[in-house]
Amino acid sequence: MTLDTTEPLLVVDDLAVEFRTDEGVVKAVDGAAFTIDRGEIVGVVGESGSGKSVTAMSILGLVKSGRRVRGSIRFRGRDLGTLPAKELRAIRGAEIAMIFQDPMTALNPVVTIGRQIVEALRLHDKKMSKSAARDRAIELLALVGMPDAAARFRQYPHEFSGGMRQRAMIAMAIANGPSLLIADEPTTALDVTIQAQVLDLLKVAQQETQAATLLITHDLGVVAELADRVVVMYAGRVVEQGDVTTVFTTPRHPYTVGLLESLPRLDRDVDELHPIPGSPPSLLSPPPGCPFHPRCPLARDNCRTDRPELRVVGNGTAVHRTACHYAEELAAVPTEVTG
Amino acid sequence: MTAFVIRRILVNIVVFILIGIGVFLLVRAAPGDPVRMMIRPEDLQEGSEAFIQARREELGLNDPVLVQYGRWFLDAITGNLGDSFVNRQPVSGLLLERLGPTVLLMSTALAISLLIAIPLGTVAAVRRNTSVDYAAAALSLGVISVPSFFLGIVAIYIFSLQLGWLPSSGMSTPGGGGGTDVLQHLIMPAAILGLASAGPLTRYVRGSLIDELSADYVRTAEAKGAAPGRVVTRHALRNSLIPLITIIMINIPQMLAGAVVLEQVFAWPGMGQLAVRAVNAQDYPVIVGFALYVAALVLICNLLADLAYAAVDPRVKVT
Amino acid sequence: MSDLRPSLDTPEVAAAEEVVATETTAAVRSQRRSPLGMAARRFRRNKIAVGGGVFLLLILLLAVFAPLIAQQSPTAVDLGAIRRAPSGEHWLGTDASGRDVFARLVYAARVSLLVGIFAALLAVLLGTVVGAVAGLFGGWLDTVLMRTADMMLSFPSIVILIVLAGILGPSIPILIVSIAITTWPTTARLVRGVTLAVREREYLHAARVAGASRGWMLRKHIVPAAMGQIVVVGTISVAGAILAEAVLSFLGLGVQPPQASWGNMLNDAQSLTVIQSMPWLWLPPGLAIAATVLAVNFVGDGLRDAVDPRQSGRS
Description:
Chain A is an alpha/beta fold.
C-alpha cells in the first residue's frame, strides 16, 4: 500500500451520483468535493436531500441503485470507485468503518451482539481464533461503556436500549482500528438524554483509535461540539466549508447564515428565530445557476444563470471556501450568531 | 410461555368443538336417511318401513338433536367415531391405518418443496430481473395453474407407460416390497405434490428475501466487509427463513388437499383416497371422521406455527 | 423534535431523502394522470397479461358460440362408436359412451367459465360485505368475522369442498356456493383493511357527522377505494374456482355426466388403458384447464402490477 503523505487521507473530488426514477434522473450528489486529513473530525451538514448521506454511502460503495456519474473518491491515494470488489471489501470495516443512523434496524435482529462484533473481527483477521475474537469483542464492549460486557455479549439487539445498541454499533465500528470512521446521523434516532452520552463516546472512540471521522448530521450543535472542520451541503453540492469556528462566526454563504439564524438559542427570544423561507429544490429538475437562489435574500440576475464555484474567502489564515457570488457582502453584515 | 401455550390450546379446543358441531349439523341436514343408507337396496322390501322406524328408534335418531349431539360428542371424544356404512368397520381404525401413508407422502413432498423453493427463491431474489428470476416466476405460476391431477396423469403416461421407469399406482408391489419398492412408488406423487407447493414457497422466499436485503442490517454487514454470499446466507436469509417456518406450518393443510387428489390418481392408500371413496359412497361416518381429522391437523399446524415462530425468533417473547 | 436542537427536516423533504436513501424509485410517482388511466396504461404495456386476456376472450367466445363451433352434440350417445380415435368426423375422437370429445370440450368451457366466474363474483360480493361490516362496526363483530375468515383461510379449501359435496350432494349451484364459501375471506381481509383506512380519513369523519349512513359510505368511499384490489383478488379467485371445479369434477364430486366439464372429462383417465392408448380423452381437457387458468393468472398478475406497481415483482 502506498502511503502518500502529501495527500489527505480521503479526497472526495467532484463526486456526482444519480438515481434513475420513473419521473426522471435525481441528481442526489452533484459535484461534491472535500478532503479529510488523518485524525481530523469533519462534520457534513445539510438538510435531508442535500446529498450528505449519499455522499457518505458512496465512499464505501454502498449506494446500490445509484450511479456515480463523475468524480472520484481517493482513500490513501487509491480510487475506491475503481477498486476491485474484493479489495474494497478488505477496506470496508477494517480501514473505513461506518456507524449508522438507526441502531434499532442497523443490527441484525436474529444474531447476538457478540457474534456480530466477532464477525467484524474475523472477517478481517482470518487467523484470529474464535475465543480470541470473543475476548476482544467483550473488551470492546467494555471500552464503549457497556456494563457487564460478558453477559451483554450473548444478548440479542432487542434486549438492548437504543443507546446501548449505538454503543455496540460503535464497538463494532472501531473493532479493527479503522483510520476513517463514517458516522451517519449517529444520534438522530436516539433520545435527547442519550444523544450527549453517545457524542461523548464518539469523542472517546476517536481519541482511542486516532481515526479521522466523517460526521454526517443535520444538527449544527453536534458539529459545533465535535468537529474540527465543517462542510455545508445544499442540493447535492458543497456550498461552504472551513474550520468550525470560522464558518460559524463568519459564514460566507447565505444558506449557512440561514441555518445559523434558524438555530434556537437559549439566550434569544423565540420570535427571533428565522427559518429559511421556501423549501429545498427538486433534485429532479434543480434550478439553473445557484441552486439556492430561489430562497436567497441576496439573489441577483446572474445567480439565476451562473453556477457559483467554491472559492477561497476570508483572510486566508484558515482555508475557508464558499460557493456564493456575493460572499463579500455577507462579510459586511456582522452576524450575531457568534458563539 | 407455558401460559401462552395453554391459552392457545384451550382456544383451539373450543374451535375444534365448534367445527364438530358444524359438521354434525351438516350431516343431520343432509338429504337422505342414514338408516336407509345402511340397508342394501336389494334388502329393502315390503314391510321394511316398520323395521326402519324401529332401527331409527334404536339408533336414537328420533331423539332431539341436542341429545343426539351429546351422545355423538361423548362417543367422539373417546375415539369412537362410529362404523363405516360401507364395510361396518370402526371409522377411527380405518383412518388410522391410512394415516401413515399420507404422512409419508406429505413429509417427502415437503422436503422436496423446500429443496426446490429455498435455493430457487434465494437465487431469484439475489439475481432479480434476470433469466433465473423469470424462470422461477414462470415455474411458480405454472405449478399453481396446472392442476396436479393432470400433471400426475402426464407423469404416469411418460414415466410409467412410455418409459416404464416407475410404477403407476399403489404403495408397493403386491408380493414384492421393501424400502426401495416403496420409494419407487413414492417418487412420482411426492415429486408432483412437492413441486405444486414449491411454487408459492419459492415466491414467498424470494419476496421475503428481497425485503430483508433492503434492510439496514444488511447494509451494516456490507459495511463490515462481508462478501455478498455471506451477507445473503448469514444475515438476510436467516431473517427471512424465520417467517418461512410459519408459512410451512400453514401450508401443510393445503398440502393435504393436494395429497387427497394425488392419492386418487396414484392409488396411494392414504386418507385422501379413503375420503374420496367415502364421499362417492355417501359413507357419512367416514366423511365426518375425515373432516375431524383434517380439522385437528389444521388446528395443530396453526398452533405449531405460532410456537415455532416464538421458539425461533429471539424477538418474540410470549408471556 | 422535542429538544432545542434545530431540525432542518421538513416532512416532505424527509420523505424525498428516504426515497434517495432507500432507493425505492417507485415512490416518486406523480399524480398527474388518473389512477385508473395509469393502471390501464401499465396493464397494456404488460404483453404477457394482454396475451392472457386475448386468450381468455377467445375461450369466452368459444363458450358463448359453442353450438355454432361444435358440429356434434356434446351429449349424444353413440354406442356404436365408443372410444374412437380422432378422425374427420370426430376431431378429437369419442369417449366411453361414444360422445364427441371436441363438442364436449367446447361445451365444457361454458361450465368451467360459468362456475369460475360466478363463484368468484359471489365470493367477492360476500367478502366485500363481510369486510366492510367488520371494518365499519368493529368491536366483537369484527373479531368474530375476522377470526372466522382466518380459520377458513387456514383450512384446505379442496377438503372443505369434498366434505360439502359429499354431504350435500354434487350439483352446480352447490359447487358455486361452496367455492364462494371457501374463497370469500381473502376479499374480506382486503376490504376490511381499506375500510379501516378510509374510516380514518378526515372527510369521512365529517361525512359521518353530517349523518351519512354506513351504506352510503360503503358505496361512495370504501368500494371505490378498494375496487382496484377487489378486481385483482376477484380475477385470481376465478383461476382458483376453475381449478376447484376441475378437481371436484375429476373426483366425481362436481359436475355430473352427461353434462360435460373439463374436470369430469378427465375422470375417465383414471384407468391405465385410457391413459396409455387414448390420450385424446385426457390431453385436450387437461391442456384446456391449464391454459385457461394460466391465462387468468397472467391477467391477474398484470392487473396487480397495474393497480399497485410497488407490489410488482414482490411476493
